[in-house]
Amino acid sequence: MSGFSSPIANFDNIATKDKMNNTAGSYALVGAKVSRESSVVARLRDAGAVILGKATMGEWAQCRSRKASSSHGWSAYGGQVLGAYYPQQDPSGSSSGSAVAVSIGLAFGSIATETSGSIVNPAERGNVVGIKPTLGLTSRDMVIPISVRQDTVGPIGRTVKDAAYMLSAIAGKDTFDNWTSTQPFDVVPDYVKACDFLGLKGARVGVPRNGIDYYLDSSTNPVMVAFEQALQTVRDAGARVIEEANFSSFDAPSFARNSSIVLDTDFVGGLANYLASLSTNPNNIHSLSDLTHFTKADPREEHPDRDTYVWDRQLGRNLTSSSLESFMAYQANLRMGGKEGVIGALDRHKLDALIMPTFASFHLPAIAGLPIVTVPLGFYPAQTPLTMNLKKTMVSVAPNIPFGLAFVGRGWSEEKLISLAYAFEQRTMIRRKMKPYIRPTFELSDQLEPTEETPYKLKVQYRPPVNDSPRFGQLVIQKTIGRLFLVRSWMWSILGFQQSLL
């Protein structure tokens, strides 16, 4: 692909061989150097993209602490990412910064990773488009891993077509990632050509109600109202909607337990392999045990307020990814996500895709390696009561916070999913119906020669939402972006910004 000269944000677990760090949000890897650049970044550069900087993420892709002990989008090195549609908004995670960057227009698009929801959830909360590809469509080479059996790299964009451009650029086989050898094509499809206004005409899409109903609560009522309206839009566009296209088995506690085993055993070995590939390792982190000791000892990591529960559990299992228990858990999840789940529903009803609210869409595709495209669906209405996250530090549900619609398909069906998503997007243009309450107004040309002592500051225009306080009216970037296009040493602090009280 050529002619893709666009500014792209990179996720802080996808390695670049330049002066940017690749830390997964942890001080343990600050100053570490990689032996080569990740394949997806190399493909983006070859396509003409400019890598602007690293987007802040949930530390270790939210794979460190129990949910009530930490928060989406927080990392020791990057700070706390906040969403752009309500003060103190939970951005969801773990690709929080990648989604917020696109949401407020700091980049044409971004690349991010998903193990289970980490692209599509932040994308829906940012009112943008996210594509979680089929496992094996994009390389994970030189990406700090969670699970080789679930991790994928995908794009986040303002529109379906923007995301399709990026997917075309990063997809393809790679000798550094054997999973990409399973691709059924030698030439990557042109996903931009799949953007068809008539993409819904004649399509068969199914609604797996039992996979949606399990996750319903009072906070999802507005989402479901918008979802039913979306189904009518899909019908009006010429698609046939098959109700009750249910999964033959949907045992969420079972696949959650299996996923815990798979991810725990994959992370221990996968992390050690990544650390072994570093050319410089200043903190001598060679294993999960080393990482745990570092994190507990360094006060910047905020332990024990933000615990290491996940790592302690992983180390306590004393299993490897090749153990029988891990293998059986993975096989059970493939069955539940595939034949008994998504693939079974698609085959029984002869469907092109499943259609679901994004909040309920990602669990089975995660364990079965299947693709998802999420597009904006709507926003919480004005009188929505506030719901806080488990740590009671951020707002999870509030007026104006966006939510999304997901199309889920078979492996390698990205062209079809993009076609369906594009057709829906173009008929509704929901992204345009609500603006973020913050808007960047700074231009790099305003100050060409900043220094470390006088870094750039980004002022953000403020539009108060319902029940707001004026103290959120100004956001300031405190880390330097002085040599952004020269040495690319910037960590996007707007994505993990420090608040300046008025």
Report on the architecture of this protein.
By secondary structure, the chain is an alpha+beta fold. The protein is built from 13 helices and 20 strands. Helix 7 crosses helix 9 and helix 7 crosses helix 10. The longest helix is centred in the middle third of the chain and has 25 residues. The protein is globular.
In whole angstroms, the N-to-C terminal distance is: 47 Å
Please tell me the overall pLDDT: 89
Instruction: Strand order, main sheet: write it out.
Output: 3-1-6-8-7-13-16-12-9-10
- The global form is globular
- Gyration radius, rounded: 21 Å
Going by helix content, strand content and strand pairing, the class is: alpha+beta
Low-confidence stretches: 447-502
Number of strands: 20
Give the fraction of residues assigned to helices.
25-40%
Q: Report the sheet with the most strands, covering strand number, pairing sense and barrel closure.
A: 10 strands, mixed
Tally the helices.
13
Keywords for this structure?
502 residues, alpha+beta, ten-stranded mixed β-sheet, two-stranded antiparallel sheet, globular, disordered C terminus
